[in-house]
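Why show two proteins at once? Because comparison is the fastest way to build intuition. When a single record is shown, students tend to memorize it. When two are placed side by side, the eye starts asking what differs. So, the first record is below.
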Amino acid sequence: MDILKSIYDAFEYMTSKYSRVMLIRFDVRFPQSYYKDDSNRHISHLFKMITDNSKYRHLALQYIWVRERSDANHQHYHCMILANGHKIQCYYSFLKKIERQWTHVLNLKSGEGLVHFCDNNGLMIRKPLRNSIGYERRDQEKAFSKAYEDAFYRCSYLAKVSTKTDRLPPNVRRYNSSLRR
């Protein structure tokens, strides 16, 4: 599936570039009373704000968002960010900033409850230290593999097909990612 491939590519890119990579997972929703808009302009605006801010702060991140629609009136989005773990140590403050940005994008006074901070956030994927040897190296490699697999498994939820609709308006994406090759 294309979404899984995008997730894999983002993981490979970030772990090849940085020795520490932080996973941040969240979901974004619209208020029930919000005007129904079938485009992805709001989520695109949010991620433009996130990436512009990350460039300014030299955070070096990759993202993927996936549009879903279940029985709810509005689509919602499952999102993941992989960030340079040397620059982001606290995922909670990063998510609070995203919550404020989403409130701004929707032009609301309060966006409380519209950004869901997923469980098990802030997973740090650490590559083995270059100078480690022997048992220490083996243990670090095992820890890296486990963290990578756990993080990838958590993000594979974005690729589930049960609530993805094939009936999208013309020229509307089902998902998007920052990784461009």
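Second record. Ask yourself what differs from the first in the token line.
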Amino acid sequence: MPSIANYAIFTNMCHISGTRQTMANGTEKAGFDENPPTQFEAGAQKTPFRMPAKRERVRLGEGGRFVIPAAMREEMGVKPGEDLILHVENGELRVRSWLRNLRRVQAELSALKKPGESVVDEFLKERREEQRRSDRRLDRLHALGTARKRAK
């Protein structure tokens, strides 16, 4: 006597091979007719296969170490060996990607920059002016020290 599992395998094989099969409503259909193949769309899968967990329980190990679960690292966009920013806010530890934080700050600051304005050129202009003031002061102090030395 065949088992139910063997019957399920047999009916699936009949379905795949294209043999006729009696449907629940009493009609007969040839193998692939009941579920016609559909075209696969690569972009149709919008959500990832595994949704990252929003909360995980981890154990604090020796030296205050803990492991960030893989799904959370993936959502944060970090990989082992990358730098992180840690800070405590209202008693909660906050962890951010150093690189993502840098990009966020750059985006915020670039919004403040006027079109056509070169932040680097402005910075260099300020540094050169500061260097000229320092050089003039040093020249003045040198001349004053040389004059006093000659007066003795």
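One difference worth noting in the second protein: Confidence is low (pLDDT under 50) at residues 5-19.
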